[in-house]
Backbone:
Protein backbone atom coordinates (compact mmCIF):
# COMPACT_ATOMS: atom_id res chain seq x y z
CA UNK A 1 0.00 0.00 0.00
CA UNK A 2 1.22 3.50 -0.83
CA UNK A 3 -0.12 6.98 -0.27
CA UNK A 4 -0.16 9.03 -3.43
CA UNK A 5 -1.45 12.44 -2.35
CA UNK A 6 -1.65 13.78 1.21
CA UNK A 7 -3.04 17.20 2.23
CA UNK A 8 -4.49 18.75 5.39
CA UNK A 9 -6.95 21.62 5.74
CA UNK A 10 -8.22 23.53 8.76
CA UNK A 11 -11.96 23.97 8.33
CA UNK A 12 -15.08 24.27 10.52
CA UNK A 13 -16.70 20.94 11.44
CA UNK A 14 -20.32 22.02 11.58
CA UNK A 15 -21.41 18.52 12.55
CA UNK A 16 -19.62 18.73 15.90
CA UNK A 17 -19.05 22.44 16.59
CA UNK A 18 -18.15 25.66 14.84
CA UNK A 19 -14.49 25.36 15.82
CA UNK A 20 -11.96 24.70 13.11
CA UNK A 21 -10.53 21.19 13.08
CA UNK A 22 -8.02 19.46 10.85
CA UNK A 23 -9.43 17.60 7.87
CA UNK A 24 -7.03 15.19 6.21
CA UNK A 25 -7.27 13.99 2.65
CA UNK A 26 -5.27 11.33 0.88
CA UNK A 27 -5.32 9.02 -2.08
CA UNK A 28 -3.79 5.56 -1.96
CA UNK A 29 -2.71 2.58 -4.03
CA UNK A 30 -3.70 -0.87 -2.80
CA UNK A 31 -2.55 -4.15 -4.30
CA UNK A 32 -3.38 -7.49 -2.66
CA UNK A 33 -4.73 -10.93 -3.45
CA UNK A 34 -7.46 -12.05 -1.03
CA UNK A 35 -8.71 -15.00 -3.07
CA UNK A 36 -7.13 -17.50 -0.65
CA UNK A 37 -9.53 -16.27 2.09
CA UNK A 38 -12.53 -17.74 0.29
CA UNK A 39 -13.72 -21.29 0.91
CA UNK A 40 -17.07 -23.10 1.10
CA UNK A 41 -18.04 -21.26 4.30
CA UNK A 42 -17.06 -17.70 3.29
CA UNK A 43 -20.01 -15.70 2.02
CA UNK A 44 -18.22 -12.34 1.71
CA UNK A 45 -15.35 -10.19 2.95
CA UNK A 46 -15.82 -6.77 4.50
CA UNK A 47 -12.56 -4.83 3.95
CA UNK A 48 -11.76 -1.59 5.72
CA UNK A 49 -8.80 0.77 5.75
CA UNK A 50 -8.05 2.54 9.04
CA UNK A 51 -5.70 5.36 9.94
CA UNK A 52 -4.17 5.29 13.40
CA UNK A 53 -2.19 8.07 15.08
CA UNK A 54 -1.37 9.66 18.44
CA UNK A 55 -2.01 13.28 19.43
CA UNK A 56 -1.39 15.17 22.68
CA UNK A 57 -5.16 15.16 23.30
CA UNK A 58 -5.67 11.45 22.56
CA UNK A 59 -3.33 8.53 23.08
CA UNK A 60 -5.10 6.59 20.32
CA UNK A 61 -6.98 7.92 17.29
CA UNK A 62 -8.49 5.45 14.81
CA UNK A 63 -10.43 6.55 11.74
CA UNK A 64 -12.01 4.33 9.07
CA UNK A 65 -11.22 5.93 5.71
CA UNK A 66 -12.45 3.40 3.16
CA UNK A 67 -14.32 0.10 2.95
CA UNK A 68 -15.42 -2.45 0.37
CA UNK A 69 -17.45 -5.65 0.30
CA UNK A 70 -16.24 -8.55 -1.85
CA UNK A 71 -18.75 -11.32 -2.43
CA UNK A 72 -17.77 -14.93 -3.04
CA UNK A 73 -17.27 -15.35 -6.77
CA UNK A 74 -16.16 -11.74 -7.30
CA UNK A 75 -12.60 -10.86 -8.20
CA UNK A 76 -10.57 -10.82 -4.95
CA UNK A 77 -7.36 -9.75 -6.68
CA UNK A 78 -7.24 -6.03 -5.91
CA UNK A 79 -5.06 -3.57 -7.78
CA UNK A 80 -6.38 -0.07 -7.02
CA UNK A 81 -4.48 3.02 -8.12
CA UNK A 82 -4.94 6.54 -6.79
CA UNK A 83 -8.07 5.64 -4.78
CA UNK A 84 -9.92 8.38 -2.93
CA UNK A 85 -10.89 7.85 0.69
CA UNK A 86 -14.60 7.20 1.18
CA UNK A 87 -15.12 8.88 4.57
CA UNK A 88 -13.98 12.21 6.03
CA UNK A 89 -10.68 12.13 7.92
CA UNK A 90 -11.50 14.57 10.74
CA UNK A 91 -9.30 15.14 13.75
CA UNK A 92 -11.00 16.46 16.89
CA UNK A 93 -8.59 19.39 16.98
CA UNK A 94 -5.43 20.31 15.12
CA UNK A 95 -3.57 17.02 15.34
CA UNK A 96 -3.02 16.28 11.65
CA UNK A 97 -0.98 19.25 10.39
CA UNK A 98 2.67 18.22 10.47
CA UNK A 99 1.90 14.82 12.01
CA UNK A 100 4.76 12.56 10.99
CA UNK A 101 3.45 9.10 11.86
CA UNK A 102 -0.02 8.17 10.63
CA UNK A 103 -0.32 4.42 10.03
CA UNK A 104 -2.72 2.88 7.51
CA UNK A 105 -3.87 -0.70 8.10
CA UNK A 106 -6.08 -2.90 5.94
CA UNK A 107 -8.32 -5.24 7.94
CA UNK A 108 -11.25 -7.46 7.08
CA UNK A 109 -14.16 -9.34 8.54
CA UNK A 110 -14.91 -12.74 7.08
CA UNK A 111 -18.68 -13.13 6.82
CA UNK A 112 -19.34 -16.88 6.92
CA UNK A 113 -22.39 -18.86 5.88
CA UNK A 114 -22.35 -20.27 9.42
CA UNK A 115 -20.19 -19.79 12.50
CA UNK A 116 -18.09 -17.07 14.10
CA UNK A 117 -17.28 -13.68 12.58
CA UNK A 118 -13.48 -13.35 12.74
CA UNK A 119 -11.86 -9.89 12.48
CA UNK A 120 -8.46 -10.13 10.80
CA UNK A 121 -5.79 -7.47 10.44
CA UNK A 122 -3.55 -7.71 7.41
CA UNK A 123 0.15 -8.30 7.76
CA UNK A 124 1.97 -5.09 6.98
CA UNK A 125 1.15 -1.44 7.38
CA UNK A 126 1.98 1.82 5.66
CA UNK A 127 2.96 5.01 7.50
CA UNK A 128 2.97 8.52 6.07
CA UNK A 129 3.36 12.16 7.09
CA UNK A 130 0.97 15.08 6.77
CA UNK A 131 2.36 18.35 5.39
CA UNK A 132 3.45 21.05 7.83
CA UNK A 133 1.29 23.67 6.09
CA UNK A 134 -2.44 23.77 5.49
CA UNK A 135 -3.66 23.43 1.92
CA UNK A 136 -5.75 26.43 0.86
CA UNK A 137 -6.95 25.06 -2.47
CA UNK A 138 -9.79 22.65 -3.06
CA UNK A 139 -8.77 18.97 -3.16
Residues:
Amino acid sequence: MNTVKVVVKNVPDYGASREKNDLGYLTFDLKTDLSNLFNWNVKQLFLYLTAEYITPANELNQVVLWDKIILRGENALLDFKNMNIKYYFWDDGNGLKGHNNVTLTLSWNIIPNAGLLPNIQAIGQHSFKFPTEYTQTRV
